[in-house]
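Re: coenzyme A structure - here you go.
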Amino acid sequence: MKVPRARTAPAGGNYMPASRVAEPVARFRLRRATLDDLDLLVRHRRGMWEEILEASPREYDAADRAYRRWARARMKAREIVGWIAEAEGGEAVASGCVWLMPSQPRPGWKGTVSPYLMSMYTEKADRGRGLATRITREAIRWSKARGFTVLLLHASRFGKPIYAREGFHEGNEMRLRLAERRVRRDGRPRRR
Ligand SMILES: CC(C)(COP(=O)(O)OP(=O)(O)OC[C@H]1O[C@@H](n2cnc3c(N)ncnc32)[C@H](O)[C@@H]1OP(=O)(O)O)[C@@H](O)C(=O)NCCC(=O)NCCS
Protein backbone atom coordinates (compact mmCIF):
# COMPACT_ATOMS: atom_id res chain seq x y z
CA MET A 1 0.00 0.00 0.00
CA LYS A 2 1.32 3.45 -0.90
CA VAL A 3 1.52 5.67 2.16
CA PRO A 4 1.51 9.42 1.47
CA ARG A 5 4.75 11.14 2.42
CA ALA A 6 4.76 13.60 5.29
CA ARG A 7 4.60 17.21 4.20
CA THR A 8 6.52 18.32 7.27
CA ALA A 9 9.47 16.88 9.11
CA PRO A 10 8.45 14.57 11.96
CA ALA A 11 8.65 15.97 15.45
CA GLY A 12 9.57 14.00 18.54
CA GLY A 13 12.63 11.94 19.24
CA ASN A 14 13.77 14.26 22.01
CA TYR A 15 13.35 13.59 25.67
CA MET A 16 10.18 15.24 26.82
CA PRO A 17 9.00 16.19 30.26
CA ALA A 18 6.04 14.16 31.46
CA SER A 19 3.04 16.44 31.58
CA ARG A 20 1.37 15.63 34.85
CA VAL A 21 4.05 14.43 37.21
CA ALA A 22 4.95 16.63 40.15
CA GLU A 23 8.31 15.64 41.74
CA PRO A 24 10.62 14.20 40.61
CA VAL A 25 9.88 15.03 37.00
CA ALA A 26 10.32 11.79 35.11
CA ARG A 27 11.44 12.21 31.52
CA PHE A 28 10.40 10.08 28.60
CA ARG A 29 11.37 9.78 24.97
CA LEU A 30 8.87 9.08 22.23
CA ARG A 31 10.28 7.06 19.37
CA ARG A 32 8.98 5.19 16.36
CA ALA A 33 8.48 1.45 16.78
CA THR A 34 10.39 -1.00 14.59
CA LEU A 35 9.93 -4.70 13.92
CA ASP A 36 12.33 -5.32 16.82
CA ASP A 37 9.60 -3.93 19.10
CA LEU A 38 7.03 -6.52 18.04
CA ASP A 39 7.28 -8.47 21.32
CA LEU A 40 6.57 -5.30 23.26
CA LEU A 41 3.72 -4.26 20.99
CA VAL A 42 2.12 -7.69 21.33
CA ARG A 43 2.58 -7.60 25.12
CA HIS A 44 1.06 -4.13 25.37
CA ARG A 45 -1.82 -5.10 23.12
CA ARG A 46 -2.45 -8.14 25.33
CA GLY A 47 -2.37 -5.88 28.39
CA MET A 48 -4.93 -3.63 26.75
CA TRP A 49 -7.33 -6.50 26.03
CA GLU A 50 -6.91 -7.97 29.50
CA GLU A 51 -8.14 -4.70 30.97
CA ILE A 52 -10.98 -4.00 28.59
CA LEU A 53 -12.29 -7.34 27.37
CA GLU A 54 -13.19 -10.45 29.34
CA ALA A 55 -11.75 -13.49 27.56
CA SER A 56 -10.15 -16.79 28.46
CA PRO A 57 -6.34 -17.19 28.61
CA ARG A 58 -6.55 -19.35 25.49
CA GLU A 59 -8.38 -16.61 23.65
CA TYR A 60 -5.82 -14.00 24.70
CA ASP A 61 -2.98 -16.33 23.61
CA ALA A 62 -4.61 -16.98 20.24
CA ALA A 63 -5.17 -13.24 19.77
CA ASP A 64 -1.49 -12.58 20.57
CA ARG A 65 -0.36 -15.02 17.89
CA ALA A 66 -2.76 -13.66 15.31
CA TYR A 67 -1.88 -10.05 16.11
CA ARG A 68 1.85 -10.75 15.89
CA ARG A 69 1.47 -12.20 12.37
CA TRP A 70 -0.96 -9.49 11.28
CA ALA A 71 1.08 -6.60 12.69
CA ARG A 72 4.41 -7.91 11.42
CA ALA A 73 3.11 -8.06 7.84
CA ARG A 74 1.60 -4.59 8.10
CA MET A 75 4.64 -3.00 9.72
CA LYS A 76 6.74 -4.41 6.89
CA ALA A 77 4.28 -2.99 4.37
CA ARG A 78 4.30 0.35 6.26
CA GLU A 79 0.59 0.01 6.93
CA ILE A 80 1.18 0.19 10.68
CA VAL A 81 3.27 2.84 12.35
CA GLY A 82 3.85 2.69 16.09
CA TRP A 83 5.24 4.94 18.80
CA ILE A 84 6.90 3.87 22.01
CA ALA A 85 7.46 5.98 25.09
CA GLU A 86 10.70 5.09 26.81
CA ALA A 87 11.95 6.12 30.21
CA GLU A 88 15.44 7.61 30.36
CA GLY A 89 16.87 4.19 31.21
CA GLY A 90 15.45 2.85 27.94
CA GLU A 91 12.52 0.98 29.50
CA ALA A 92 9.49 1.01 27.17
CA VAL A 93 6.45 2.00 29.21
CA ALA A 94 3.75 2.98 26.73
CA SER A 95 2.89 2.41 23.10
CA GLY A 96 0.26 2.99 20.48
CA CYS A 97 -0.07 2.40 16.76
CA VAL A 98 -1.80 3.80 13.72
CA TRP A 99 -3.07 1.27 11.20
CA LEU A 100 -3.82 2.47 7.70
CA MET A 101 -7.19 0.80 7.46
CA PRO A 102 -8.90 0.15 4.13
CA SER A 103 -12.07 2.23 3.94
CA GLN A 104 -14.77 2.65 1.35
CA PRO A 105 -14.84 5.82 -0.76
CA ARG A 106 -17.20 8.53 0.47
CA PRO A 107 -17.65 12.25 -0.13
CA GLY A 108 -15.09 14.37 1.67
CA TRP A 109 -12.72 11.48 2.45
CA LYS A 110 -9.53 11.24 0.45
CA GLY A 111 -8.61 7.83 -0.93
CA THR A 112 -9.61 4.45 0.42
CA VAL A 113 -7.39 4.30 3.47
CA SER A 114 -8.09 5.85 6.87
CA PRO A 115 -5.66 6.05 9.78
CA TYR A 116 -6.96 4.16 12.82
CA LEU A 117 -5.41 4.64 16.26
CA MET A 118 -5.16 1.34 18.12
CA SER A 119 -3.33 -0.75 20.72
CA MET A 120 -2.88 2.12 23.15
CA TYR A 121 -1.37 0.92 26.39
CA THR A 122 0.59 2.43 29.27
CA GLU A 123 2.22 0.29 31.96
CA LYS A 124 0.24 0.67 35.19
CA ALA A 125 3.11 2.26 37.13
CA ASP A 126 3.45 5.03 34.55
CA ARG A 127 -0.17 6.00 34.04
CA GLY A 128 -1.36 9.55 34.47
CA ARG A 129 1.94 11.00 33.22
CA GLY A 130 0.55 12.11 29.88
CA LEU A 131 2.18 9.34 27.82
CA ALA A 132 -0.96 8.18 26.01
CA THR A 133 -1.81 11.82 25.38
CA ARG A 134 1.61 12.36 23.80
CA ILE A 135 1.22 9.28 21.60
CA THR A 136 -2.28 10.38 20.58
CA ARG A 137 -0.99 13.84 19.64
CA GLU A 138 1.85 12.31 17.65
CA ALA A 139 -0.63 10.05 15.81
CA ILE A 140 -2.76 13.11 15.01
CA ARG A 141 0.28 15.05 13.82
CA TRP A 142 1.50 12.09 11.73
CA SER A 143 -1.90 11.62 10.11
CA LYS A 144 -2.38 15.31 9.35
CA ALA A 145 1.12 15.56 7.89
CA ARG A 146 0.20 12.85 5.39
CA GLY A 147 -2.91 14.66 4.24
CA PHE A 148 -5.46 12.41 5.92
CA THR A 149 -8.67 14.19 6.82
CA VAL A 150 -9.87 11.91 9.59
CA LEU A 151 -8.35 9.75 12.38
CA LEU A 152 -10.51 6.92 13.68
CA LEU A 153 -10.47 4.78 16.81
CA HIS A 154 -12.59 2.74 19.18
CA ALA A 155 -12.20 3.95 22.74
CA SER A 156 -12.12 1.98 25.96
CA ARG A 157 -13.57 3.68 29.03
CA PHE A 158 -9.99 4.43 30.10
CA GLY A 159 -9.04 6.04 26.81
CA LYS A 160 -12.23 7.97 26.13
CA PRO A 161 -11.50 11.07 28.26
CA ILE A 162 -8.04 11.37 26.70
CA TYR A 163 -9.35 11.22 23.14
CA ALA A 164 -12.23 13.57 23.94
CA ARG A 165 -9.75 16.12 25.29
CA GLU A 166 -7.80 15.86 22.04
CA GLY A 167 -10.93 16.65 20.00
CA PHE A 168 -12.26 13.21 19.06
CA HIS A 169 -16.02 12.90 19.11
CA GLU A 170 -18.37 9.96 18.86
CA GLY A 171 -19.67 9.16 15.39
CA ASN A 172 -22.65 7.18 14.25
CA GLU A 173 -21.23 3.67 14.23
CA MET A 174 -23.73 1.00 15.26
CA ARG A 175 -23.02 -2.60 16.15
CA LEU A 176 -25.12 -5.75 16.15
CA ARG A 177 -23.78 -8.68 18.14
CA LEU A 178 -24.29 -11.79 16.04
CA ALA A 179 -23.05 -14.17 18.72
CA GLU A 180 -23.28 -13.96 22.50
CA ARG A 181 -19.94 -14.03 24.31
CA ARG A 182 -20.19 -16.34 27.31
CA VAL A 183 -16.59 -16.63 28.45
CA ARG A 184 -15.26 -15.68 31.85
CA ARG A 185 -11.74 -14.58 32.63
CA ASP A 186 -10.95 -18.07 33.99
CA GLY A 187 -12.05 -19.62 30.72
CA ARG A 188 -15.08 -21.39 32.16
CA PRO A 189 -18.47 -20.87 30.55
CA ARG A 190 -20.82 -18.46 32.29
CA ARG A 191 -23.84 -19.85 34.11
CA ARG A 192 -27.06 -18.85 32.42
C1 LIG B 1 -5.89 4.46 28.49
C2 LIG B 1 -4.40 4.48 28.82
C3 LIG B 1 -3.60 4.08 27.58
C4 LIG B 1 -4.02 5.90 29.27
O1 LIG B 1 -2.62 5.93 29.46
P1 LIG B 1 -1.90 7.14 30.25
O2 LIG B 1 -0.49 7.18 29.75
O3 LIG B 1 -2.11 6.99 31.69
O4 LIG B 1 -2.72 8.39 29.73
P2 LIG B 1 -2.48 9.92 30.07
O5 LIG B 1 -1.50 10.05 31.19
O6 LIG B 1 -2.22 10.63 28.81
O7 LIG B 1 -3.92 10.33 30.59
C5 LIG B 1 -4.36 9.69 31.79
C6 LIG B 1 -5.74 10.05 32.17
O8 LIG B 1 -6.19 8.87 32.83
C7 LIG B 1 -6.53 9.17 34.17
N1 LIG B 1 -5.43 8.86 35.08
C8 LIG B 1 -4.66 9.68 35.80
N2 LIG B 1 -3.83 8.99 36.58
C9 LIG B 1 -4.08 7.70 36.37
C10 LIG B 1 -3.53 6.51 36.91
N3 LIG B 1 -2.58 6.52 37.84
N4 LIG B 1 -4.01 5.34 36.44
C11 LIG B 1 -4.97 5.33 35.50
N5 LIG B 1 -5.51 6.45 34.97
C12 LIG B 1 -5.09 7.62 35.41
C13 LIG B 1 -6.91 10.57 34.08
O9 LIG B 1 -8.18 10.70 33.44
C14 LIG B 1 -5.84 11.13 33.16
O10 LIG B 1 -6.20 12.31 32.61
P3 LIG B 1 -5.97 13.71 33.41
O11 LIG B 1 -5.08 13.46 34.57
O12 LIG B 1 -5.34 14.59 32.41
O13 LIG B 1 -7.35 14.14 33.78
C15 LIG B 1 -4.08 3.52 30.02
O14 LIG B 1 -4.95 3.82 31.09
C16 LIG B 1 -4.22 2.05 29.65
O15 LIG B 1 -3.28 1.45 29.13
N6 LIG B 1 -5.43 1.47 29.93
C17 LIG B 1 -5.71 0.07 29.63
C18 LIG B 1 -5.78 -0.20 28.12
C19 LIG B 1 -6.70 0.77 27.42
O16 LIG B 1 -7.82 1.04 27.83
N7 LIG B 1 -6.19 1.32 26.30
C20 LIG B 1 -6.92 2.28 25.49
C21 LIG B 1 -7.70 1.58 24.46
S1 LIG B 1 -8.68 2.75 23.53
